[in-house]
Specification:
Order of helices and strands: HEEEEEH
Number of strands: 5
Shape: rod-shaped
Radius of gyration: 24 Å
Structural class: alpha+beta
Helix content: 40-55%
Number of helices: 2
């Protein structure tokens, strides 16, 4: 293309760059949709493990005669989230309540925020399993004791 006009060359290169950028953006979008689909497919199993951890924790509290109770509540989804919910820990004796807000992001990341009155302590969890849910429930219980 030695006889190519400089403007032709410049416009062709810009078009090629725009095509590469558009292709890269489409690839990123497909990858994001794939992660969202995988996360949405895995969340019911993770949610079930959370419910199992709550039941086990409530059994331990009852065994020790505690008047505290963990409860699980689903919330409506917000745009960009796979799921939203919270765990509540209430002490019937003192009327104290603590919350663990849970957001499951499309990227497969589970974000938990411990709510205690007006203070917030952020905790992020990557791979969710019963052990990590138990850690979060223990943190929630520890905060109720303060």
């Amino acid at each position: 293309m030695s006889g190519e006009h400089p403007l032709d060359k410049k416009l062709r290169e810009r078009k090629q760059q725009a095509d590469r950028t558009a292709s890269l953006e489409q690839t990123k979008q497909r990858a994001m949709e794939g992660r969202r689909a995988r996360t949405a497919a895995e969340w019911p199993k993770d949610e079930e493990s959370l419910r199992a951890a709550i039941n086990a924790s409530n059994d331990v509290l009852a065994k020790h005669g505690k008047q505290e109770l963990f409860t699980y509540h689903s919330l409506p989804q917000q745009e960009g989230d796979v799921a939203r919910s919270y765990v509540q820990l209430r002490d019937a004796h003192t009327a104290s309540t603590r919350f663990l807000d849970i957001r499951v992001l499309a990227e497969g990341i589970v974000v938990t925020v411990l709510r205690i009155s007006s203070r917030k302590n952020d905790h992020s969890v990557g791979n969710v399993n019963v052990a990590s849910w138990n850690e979060r429930l223990n943190e929630l219980h520890d905060q109720l004791s303060l």
